[in-house]
Design a protein that fits this description.
nucleotide-binding; nine-stranded parallel sheet; tRNA binding; 13% strand; DusB-like; FMN; RNA-binding; alpha/beta
Length: 316
């Protein structure tokens, strides 16, 4: 059966998000991306990102950085804190502040440091090391992408994840399925496709167009934890997903909010900020969605948000 993973999502895939996705069908997840420097210098916020529980397994970590020595030190620090199935090297993050540090997708512009990092981690740690790439930096360059992927494999990468957009595209525009297909055809390690996996049909398209071994579900899981089971069922026997009832959506939203309230660390305003975001994710499926989004955005406590859910959403 093709593999369907919950992607690492900075600022989104916290413990509550991972647990709600697992409860509705996700079988494998990543922590949020972790900055190597922050981990070494023991940032409290970074430690909070690594919070987990027995139900949150299996799980992998993703490190952001460009210095091989710092990445190794961070990886060792991470493994002293939490047990993970693998560690991914992020060479895909397109955010400007990350690029300015010559990290993330910048590593595809000058991949020599990426290869050194993979080699150092593989030779020093007894755990699979994977890498996440993009289809290119400023423009599509299939030849360069294939070369980078092959060199990542050569230096020990156990799996290659590819977001089918360039750094310049960020998260919009068409997904380059051909780029992912070419990598799959030119390496022996498993290849996962990422980008635009918003429903079961787009997931199947990713598999059909690329021949990939698995996919990463990212924004498609926002307010939609059913997506993993829907994709799995559709790939298995082309079973079309049932329409999710308002009662089921309301139940999932309340459960997600409960998990945020239970597990989210930090100041109360930060916790409420996450709850607002969660409410907005789910609200697109409800009547009076625009009004509800506005009200969620103004709520100041868990109790206020729950009251809005009960007042404006029909169902359980």
């Amino acid at each position: 059966m093709p593999k369907i993973y919950l992607a690492p999502l900075a600022g989104c895939s916290d413990l509550a998000f991972r647990l709600i996705c697992r409860e509705y069908g996700a079988k494998f997840a990543f922590f949020e991306m972790v900055d190597a420097h922050s981990l070494i210098y023991e940032s409290r916020q970074t430690f909070d990102v690594l919070e987990t529980c027995p139900e949150d397994k299996p799980i992998a970590a993703q490190l952001l950085g460009c210095d091989p020595d710092i990445m190794l030190k961070a990886a060792k620090r991470l493994l002293a804190i939490v047990k993970v199935s693998s560690i991914d090297v992020n060479a895909a993050c397109p955010v400007t502040k990350v690029i300015k540090k010559k990290c993330g997708a910048y590593l595809m512009r000058d991949p020599s440091g990426l290869y050194k990092t993979i080699k150092k981690l593989v030779s020093s740690l007894d755990i699979p090391i994977t890498v996440k790439l993009r289809s290119g930096f400023e423009m599509e360059d299939h030849k360069k992408l294939v070369s980078i992927a092959k060199n990542c494999e050569k230096h020990g990468a156990a799996t290659i994840f590819i977001h089918g957009r360039t750094r310049s595209q960020l998260y919009s525009g068409d997904v380059d399925y051909e780029a992912i297909r070419l990598v799959k055809e030119n390496v022996k390690v498993p290849v996962f496709g990422s980008g635009n996996v918003f429903n079961h049909e787009l997931a199947k398209k990713m598999f059909d167009e690329t021949g990939c071994d698995g996919i990463l579900v990212a924004r498609g899981a926002f307010g939609n934890p059913w997506i993993f089971k829907q994709i799995e069922d559709y790939l298995k026997d082309c079973k079309l997903p049932h329409k999710i009832s308002m009662a089921s959506r309301k139940k999932a939203l309340k459960r997600h909010l409960y998990l945020v309230n239970k597990y989210r660390k930090g100041v109360e305003s930060s916790k409420v900020g996450i709850m607002r975001k969660v409410g907005i994710w789910y609200s697109k499926s409800f009547k009076n969605a625009a009004k509800l989004r506005g009200l969620f955005g103004q709520a100041r406590s868990y109790e206020e948000i729950l009251a809005l859910v009960e007042k404006f959403i029909c169902g359980v």
